[in-house]
Amino acid sequence: xxxxxxxxxxxxxxMAIAINVFLLGLxxxxxxxxxxxxxLLVEDGIVEWMQFLAFTATAALLGFVFVxxxxxxxxxxxxxxxxxxxxxxxxxxxxxxxxxFQRVLNITSPExxxxxxxxxxxxxxxxxxxxxxxxxxxxxxxxxxxGLTHNLILPFLARKRPGLQRWVENMGVYLPPLGASxxxxxLVALSHLLVDHPRKGELGETFGAIHxxxxxxxxYFVGLGYGKPALFADGVxxxxxxxxxxxAMAFLLLVGWMLSAGVGAVxx
Length: 268
Prior knowledge:
Layout: H1 11-29, H2 34-41, H3 46-70, H4 77-97, H5 102-105, H6 111-116, E1 128-129, E2 132-133, H7 134-160, H8 162-170, H9 178-194, H10 201-221, H11 235-264
Antiparallel strand pairs: 1-2
Helix pairs in contact: 1-9, 1-10, 1-11, 3-4, 3-10, 3-11, 7-8, 7-9, 9-10, 10-11
């Protein structure tokens, strides 16, 4: 049963939007200051650490849902496989984002990555493919297609065909609130239009990481726009855990900022 239909007033969705608007505002405010914008966007900068923290939190949330579903009667093997796969995929994204702690631990890249990685880092997404990297030439295109389908096309179609949402949820996935997704996509578009920096794409990736952290929590944990039973179905528990999670999201922004200062952003 859906426990909350109003995404506009949900504290977790509002916090995600506020954090993304703040980061975009920061990029615009620092647009004339090379050092400040560099601190925000380059390697080990604020947005990169925010991506890592958001992906890590999302992987933990998905892993928790997977464990909880293991003991629930009626959960299909396909649903469990989807949750386990998503957990592993998001955890991989988190580790790839910071090159598996390479710079934190001051580890030199192996010879293979020095020769085949566009940034000489120990990660897969920057491996050379054609005239670019695996991320730019392959993964980014797949992310755009999957992101638009999951955030805009399917939620829009589900308004006309409720059976579509049930089908998606039976596969272990969820549909984010259409309104929240429209705001997310609009912020990504604005970041590309208004920010002038070679790494401005990092803003959009961070917006997505924060958006998904919020919507994963809202769907599986408190049932926002979600047809299956939420982990916190009780109204009081639902409200309290949502407020606590929104506070934790704000704290992650502070931690990301501190990590960027502690490790030292590369290239600014």
